[in-house]
């Protein structure tokens, strides 16, 4: 596993533009949207808190995770398949589980850096609050990030080339952003849409993150949905994976 991680890290650093996108886009949007006056006022729909206090940073962290999960990771593995790299790797002792695990771990590091930069930027520039329940925040982030990256691995497992992976990733990413409340706050969603959000992994992720920002421990149902997503998507990725 260590050798795979080392090789994948070197390859990731060569293609640093994709990683920079996962880091820079959420931060840029956070600082841009944070200048909107209404987002810096107390919102009754959010219990009197400002959107920039927790809602906006949580959404930008989600955007960073989905960018890594549905753009960076699938495109990298699918490009390997397209160029015959995976076919050559199939002749080595490397198993699909180890290769996919290395990709998940590496992209989790990238997503963690992006989340840290989002939180720090919001705190320094917009006066956003820091997560009050630190241990709960770390648990939610790692569990939710792993679940989303595992879903990205499902795409990577079946996409024949980078173009297809990017297309599938884009089609999957925007509906998830919608049900997570990126454009319509969950508090004002219709009941049916809120139920879909509750079981989408991204909805529980954003809700649990906001709980930790408020100093509360994440709710068990939110953790359970993310854990179930991680197990389901990881298993599917390994089962569906093809070297070529």
UniProtKB/TrEMBL annotation:
PANTHER family for this protein: DOXORUBICIN RESISTANCE ABC TRANSPORTER PERMEASE PROTEIN DRRC-RELATED (PTHR43027), TRANSPORT PERMEASE PROTEIN (PTHR43027:SF2)
Coarse class of the protein's main subcellular location: membrane
Keyword Oxidoreductase set for record: no
Subcellular location: Cell membrane; Membrane
Domain ABC transmembrane type-2, residue spans: 17-244
Protein name from the UniProt record: Transport permease protein
Superkingdom to which the source organism belongs: Bacteria
GO cellular component, one term: ATP-binding cassette (ABC) transporter complex
TM stretches of this protein: 12-36, 56-78, 99-126, 132-158, 165-184, 220-241
């Amino acid at each position: 596993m260590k050798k795979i991680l080392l090789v994948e890290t070197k390859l990731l650093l060569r293609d640093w533009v994709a990683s920079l996108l996962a880091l820079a886009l959420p931060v840029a949007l956070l600082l841009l949207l944070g200048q909107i006056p209404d987002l810096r006022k107390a919102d009754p729909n959010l219990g009197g808190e400002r959107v920039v206090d927790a809602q906006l940073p949580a959404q930008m962290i989600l955007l960073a995770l989905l960018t890594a999960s549905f753009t960076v990771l699938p495109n990298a593995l699918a490009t390997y398949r397209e160029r015959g790299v995976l076919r050559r790797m199939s002749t080595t002792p490397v198993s699909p589980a180890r290769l996919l695990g290395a990709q998940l771990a590496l992209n989790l590091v990238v997503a963690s850096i992006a989340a840290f930069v989002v939180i720090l930027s919001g705190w320094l520039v917009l006066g956003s609050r820091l997560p009050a329940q630190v241990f709960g925040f770390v648990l939610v982030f790692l569990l939710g990030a792993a679940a989303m990256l595992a879903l990205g691995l499902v795409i990577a497992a079946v996409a024949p080339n980078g173009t297809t992976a990017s297309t599938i990733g884009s089609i999957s990413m925007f509906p998830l952003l919608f049900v997570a409340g990126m454009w319509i706050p969950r508090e004002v969603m219709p009941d049916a849409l809120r139920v879909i959000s509750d079981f989408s992994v991204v909805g529980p992720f954003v809700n649990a993150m906001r709980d930790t920002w408020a100093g509360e421990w994440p709710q068990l149902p939110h953790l359970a949905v993310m854990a179930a997503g991680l197990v389901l998507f990881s298993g599917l990725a390994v089962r569906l994976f093809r070297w070529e």
